[in-house]
Amino acid sequence: MRRVIFVAAAAVTFGAASAFAAAPAPQGDATKGKANFERVGCWECHGHQGQGGNAGVRIADPVPLAWPAFLAWVRTTSGDMPPFTEKVLPNQDLVDIFAYLQSVPKAPDYRTIPLLALQVGR
Ligand code: HEC
Predict the structure, then answer these.
(1) Cβ(77) – ligand 1 distance below 6 Å
(2) Which residues contact 118 (CB under 8 A, 6 or more apart)?
(3) Domain count, the chain
(4) What's the whole-model pTM score?
(5) CATH number of the domain within which 70 lies
(6) Whose C-alpha lies nearest to ligand 1, atom 27?
């Protein structure tokens, strides 16, 4: 129920007219999403695992936006990130990218990595 309210609120907030945006996050395919992420060049700014890079912020672990906001952002951003239209990146391809980013595993605590623990542990 809370999810439904949030989705509806986000859709209104972003003025997304399409019913697609108002629906809960559709099921995506993370494997296809990774391929799309590489193909359209998200990795060039955000890194291959969405970890962030010189030009783009971290967008995985955790994914910073819920689906409707994520969709609205990618379609309408006008800052340092170029918007991606449906022509370049169909909705289903973006759904798959969203699934891919959510599938990126959480980074391990550095203290559990022996080499790093040796250097910064004391
Ligand atoms: C040319 C570099 C560039 C490319 C390519 C790019 N981004 Fe971005 N992205 C950015 C920057 C920079 C930001 C930070 C916001 C800003 O300054 O506009 C951002 C922000 C974001 C955010 C919002 C992060 C937040 O914390 O709110 C998401 C989500 C995102 N990008 C997803 C994507 C996806 C998905 C793709 C590929 C379809 C992509 N980006 C391609 C540069 C890029």
Answers:
(1) yes
(2) none
(3) 1
(4) 0.81
(5) 1.10.760
(6) 64
